Amino acid sequence: MTLSKTIAVAVSCIGLVPAALAAQHPHLSEQTKQYVVVDTTIVALRHVRVIDGTGAAPRDDQTIVLTHGVITAVGDAGMIAVPAGAQILDLAGRTVLPGLVMVHEHMFYPTGGVAIYNENAYSFPKLYLAGGATTIRTAGSMEPYADLNLKAMIDTGAVPGPKMDVTGPYIEGPGLGLYQVHPLTSPADATDMVRYWAEHGATSFKLYMDVSRAELGAAVAEAHRHGLKITGHLCSVTFREAAGLGIDNLEHGILVASDFVRDKKPDACPAPPAVVTSIAAIDIGGDSVSALIRDLVAKHVAMTSTLGVFETFVSRRPPIVAGALEAMTPEARVQYLQGRARVGDDTSSLWTTLLRKEMQFERAYAAAGGLVLSGSDPTGYGGVVPGYSNQREIELLVEAGFTPVEAIKISTLNGAQYLGRADHVGSIAVGKAADLLVVRGDPTARIRDIENAETVFKDGIGYDSQRLFQSARGAVGLH
Ligand SMILES: [Zn+2]
After folding, report:
1. Sign (positive/negative) of CA torsion 169, 390, 124, 419?
2. How far is the CA of 309 from the centre of ligand 1 (A)?
3. Distance from the alpha carbon of residue 78 to the mean position of ligand 1, in angstroms
């Protein structure tokens, strides 16, 4: 179901919004226009429930005014004057939240076979936008030029998609053996990689599981020299060591921390499953984890929750939503269903414990004052499909014990703060970009209502969520 247009009048209203605030109106291509349902200068969303992204309680019967792509008013319906000439959308029964800002996204999918990780540059940007993600950080790139080109195409309106913070190629030693990944040879090599990609448009970096402390330190220093942040999915280097070397963010949470593996050798990733068995055995509320949390929080290390991909390794979890299954190619669907069959029915498996511990850890991290971020990480064996996955991640944060407004803040304003873009995105406030997710129902009462996306606004342009989702049917895994 899409928004109904009550009044559509194009007017000129230069002067209402300072030029510096007005979003650049992109020249939308014919392809992009297929998904657009609102594209006028002034839009008023009336009678909506607002969850503003700050963690504040929801407010009923609000009006939000968007002018030239910027939020210019928000407040009680009776208090906000709708400007003359505005397109008025009567949205009773809907909730409006900030467009999602999620930071562990990828433009590639684990296709398996020869390609292994296949860039899905056609379907993924549409799926992210469909799911309400208006700003994403790609947490590691297999095809950095493709990601950079895609970002430019999205920004100019050639293709629909989210605002992208593009992470450079994985900074990783020779252990991974993936032909898409450059095997690091030295700390100087790490410096070179970061410098090259920072100079060619990457705005973020990611270290992977097999790097030395010296390589990690060199990459961190070079990223910071360019004023950019760097995260890691680590193994060879412990969380505490990485924090000491200045890393800004850690991906996936405690389940990948090698800090608790007995007799861990420096700069070496312990043979699996040593890391996860060490975490399964540890008390998340105990002294050693609490001390690690204190240390990381004191060093301002953000922690990214990726519960959605972990969930796919756990038995007897709810099945993937029908739309996500239909988005896959037949081959990807078979791969996913075989993977799910391998996970099996055994709820005494390690992963049942691990998911619960990770949820507990994320709550403890936030309670200790740490910045928790969220992302969906569409990897694993293919059971994580962008768009659907962003919504699922929020549901899992609620299952972890966060309130719905906390889970939404983690997935909006926290991400914006980390990316240094909280002045522009991440909450519903006057002066910020009109990036909004409109859903039927009330996610504070029933978190699954987050799946009822109707319209996603990016810079004031409204996209039909369902039309975007449908455009990707049968594509995921291929392109
Ligand atoms: Zn990832």
Report:
1. negative
2. 9
3. 45
Distance 446 CA to ligand 1 centre (A): 28
Angle at 81 between CA 75 and CA 87, to 5 degrees: 100
CB atoms within 10 A of CB 366: 23
For residue 12, the CA-to-ligand 1 centroid distance in Å is 44
Looking at the structure, give the CATH architecture of the domain made up of residues 30-99+428-468: Roll (2.30)
Q: How far is the CA of 402 from the centre of ligand 1 (A)?
A: 23
User: What local confidence, expressed as pLDDT, does residue 6 receive?
Assistant: 34
Q: How far apart are the first and last CA of the chain?
A: 27
Domain boundaries, the chain: 30-99+428-468, 100-419
pTM of the model: 0.94
Ligand 1: centre distance to CA 297 (Å): 22
pLDDT exceeds cutoff 90 at 28: yes
Task: Report CA(106)–ligand 1 centroid distance (Å).
Answer: 7
Given a cut of 50, is residue 15 above it in pLDDT? no
Q: What is the mean pLDDT of the chain?
A: 94
Using the mean position of ligand 1's atoms as its centre, give its distance from the Cα of residue 251 in Å: 8
Kind plus residue range of the DSSP H or E element containing 44:
strand 42-50
- The rounded Å distance from CA 348 to ligand 1 centre is 26
Ligand 1 center from residue 306 Cα (angstroms)? 9
Q: What pLDDT band is residue 9 in, cutting at 50, 70 and 90?
A: very low
Q: Where residue 21 falls among pLDDT bands split at 50, 70, 90?
A: low
Fold of 100-419: TIM Barrel (3.20.20)
Q: Where are the alpha helices (DSSP H) in 90-201?
A: 123-130, 144-155, 187-199
